[in-house]
């Protein structure tokens, strides 16, 4: 099968084509095979098991985890959208972690542990399932429209902190999210449809946003659907 790869180096993109025996393999296995014949190709991967979130590339135009995407025909591979390229399929991820820091999205536990009931664990499990792969960010239009928007991955992680009763700030933790302009989310659900872990970021954002509006921390933004032309 043919594998076309959009490569990047020294400020320029170029396409390169490889012929590989890749039918039924994962994209990551194919990249590793290509690396054996062309050691100059750069890409990221660690766990090879859909856990670390580092291997995202565009496969035939869609953002996917390379390690759990099997292919059976010719493919094109590209670096992800939005994130600045570094080399070939490797991009700069730092902006994802910067937003987590800006929203202080980390767990500050109570001095003594409280056991959680199964339904309480269930409520936050989608948030803890997030592997910070960034796919939701790469498909999010709000990021393009508002550079201060906190990113769907940030809010997905924040949900698990805010609604876990072992978090010592309780719902006051919502105040930390105010600088992240959650109200810039258009609720298009691109993030939800593309998340490889079914975390449903849009739903978690909606719940966080509703709670922030109810507490007077933010005002809901009127969405601009001007293209409907009423
Ligand atoms: S919410 Fe889903 S798509 Fe977004 S970073 Fe987490 S696992 Fe990836
Ligand atoms: S639902 Fe919100 S966070 Fe998700 S992709 Fe759309 S604008 Fe971005
Ligand atoms: S290599 Fe870890 S998620 Fe793909």
Automatic annotation (TrEMBL):
- Catalytic reactions on record: a menaquinone + succinate = a menaquinol + fumarate
> Known EC number(s)?
1.3.5.1
Could you tell me the Gene Ontology terms of the biological process aspect for this record?
Answer: aerobic respiration; respiratory electron transport chain; tricarboxylic acid cycle
| UniProt-listed Pfam families | Fer2_3 (PF13085), Fer4_8 (PF13183)
Q: Name all 4Fe-4S ferredoxin-type domain ranges.
A: 117-148, 176-206
The pathway this protein participates in, as annotated, is: Carbohydrate metabolism; tricarboxylic acid cycle; fumarate from succinate (bacterial route): step 1/1
Cofactor(s) demanded: [2Fe-2S] cluster; [4Fe-4S] cluster; [3Fe-4S] cluster
User: What is the uppermost EC class here?
Assistant: oxidoreductase
Give residue ranges for domain 2Fe-2S ferredoxin-type: 1-83
Q: Which UniProt keywords apply?
A: 2Fe-2S, 3Fe-4S, 4Fe-4S, Iron, Iron-sulfur, Metal-binding, Oxidoreductase, Tricarboxylic acid cycle
Family, according to the entry, reads as follows:
Belongs to the succinate dehydrogenase/fumarate reductase iron-sulfur protein family.
Q: Which PANTHER family match?
A: SUCCINATE DEHYDROGENASE [UBIQUINONE] IRON-SULFUR SUBUNIT, MITOCHONDRIAL, SUCCINATE DEHYDROGENASE IRON-SULFUR PROTEIN
This chain belongs to the protein called Fumarate reductase iron-sulfur subunit
As recorded in Swiss-Prot or TrEMBL, the protein's gene is named: frdB2
